[in-house]
């Protein structure tokens, strides 16, 4: 019964990426963490497979990838990413002790107002679901039986890794994964209570388009958008990284201008060395 409530929340929010129709139907099994079937659009009859908790909204392939995005498609990257890099990244970027518990504490504090009711949360370009999992844990602890955290990424390997982590941590029931493009979200307007984006702003091909999409799906007033990203590295490093890998870096003024251009309003902003944490609302 709880599970159906989560499915209902999902179906209320989904929007067909082909025709923008907002009536998607589900056929199949959606029980506990056993979730396999087909989502189909009643308007244009496009179909999106759901396999063991991962729905594919890019069934005919993904958009052209930058090198950084391409490496994320590899199984090896997905396997070592969190253990070798993610848990140390913030200490390296900030130049101070920034253990995972401090980062996740900031994330959950920022999203606090969004937990007052059931709904949908988004782990944007989630990789292994580093932000989505603690949000799901929080929702489960609060007994939010109609809530769901959606992890979105272009990389199936990353989504599979995210699902494995979530299963091990016992939070998969409150999560679902979508293979989709953050710059063309399969979600309707004002359907998301909270968005968490760790690191990916530097990796998107079109960061402004992604932020505008976030603004479109975020609920006005109560909705919160938590963004953690890397600020401009020294010029020489930046030139090498962006020419090789398709990464983009922002100074704080450029970052603020980007948020404003997307129609997002700053709630709080704090920079620690090269690490920027910004909380926004629609
Ligand atoms: C830096 S990692 C994300 C890290 C993760 N959010 C975290 O906090 O650990 C970047 C991820 O963004 C994904 N990505 C890049 N561009 C994307 C897009 N347009 N839509 C969805 N995912 C994207 C890549 O596949 C990769 O897994
Ligand atoms: Zn459609």
Automatic annotation (TrEMBL):
UniProt record, GO biological process: methylation
Protein origin, superkingdom: Bacteria
UniProt domain Methyltransferase: residue ranges: 122-220
InterPro entries xref list: Methyltransf_25, SAM-dependent_MTases_sf
Entry keyword annotation includes Methyltransferase: yes
GO molecular-function term, one example from the UniProt record: methyltransferase activity
Tagged with keyword Methyltransferase: yes
Alphabetically ordered keywords of this record: Methyltransferase, Transferase, Ubiquinone
Name of the protein in question: Methylase involved in ubiquinone/menaquinone biosynthesis
Source organism of this protein record: Chloracidobacterium thermophilum (strain B)
């Amino acid at each position: 019964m709880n599970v159906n409530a989560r499915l209902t929340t999902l179906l209320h929010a989904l929007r067909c990426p082909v025709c923008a129709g907002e009536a998607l139907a589900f056929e199949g099994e959606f029980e506990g963490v056993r979730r396999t079937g087909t989502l189909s659009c009643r308007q244009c009859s496009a179909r999106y497979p759901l396999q063991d908790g991962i729905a594919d909204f890019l069934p005919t392939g993904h958009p052209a990838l930058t090198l950084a995005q391409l490496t994320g498609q590899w199984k090896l990257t997905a396997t070592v990413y969190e253990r070798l890099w993610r848990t140390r990244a913030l200490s390296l970027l900030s130049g101070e002790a920034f253990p995972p518990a401090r980062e996740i504490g900031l994330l959950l504090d920022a999203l606090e107002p969004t937990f007052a009711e059931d709904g949908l949360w988004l782990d944007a370009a989630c990789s292994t679901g580093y932000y989505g999992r603690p949000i799901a844990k929080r929702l489960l602890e609060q007994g939010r039986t109609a809530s769901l955290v959606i992890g979105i990424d272009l990389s199936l390997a990353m989504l599979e890794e995210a699902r494995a982590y979530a299963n091990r941590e016992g939070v998969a029931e409150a999560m679902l994964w979508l293979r989709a493009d953050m710059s063309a979200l399969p979600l309707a307007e004002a359907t998301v209570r909270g968005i968490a984006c760790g690191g990916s702003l530097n990796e998107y091909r079109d960061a402004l388009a992604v932020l505008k999409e976030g603004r479109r799906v975020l609920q006005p007033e109560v909705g919160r958008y938590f963004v953690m990203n890397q600020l401009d590295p020294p010029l020489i490093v930046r030139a090498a990284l962006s020419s090789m890998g398709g990464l983009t870096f922002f100074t704080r003024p450029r970052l603020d201008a980007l948020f404003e251009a997307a129609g997002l309003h700053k709630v709080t902003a704090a920079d620690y060395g090269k690490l920027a944490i910004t909380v926004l609302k629609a």
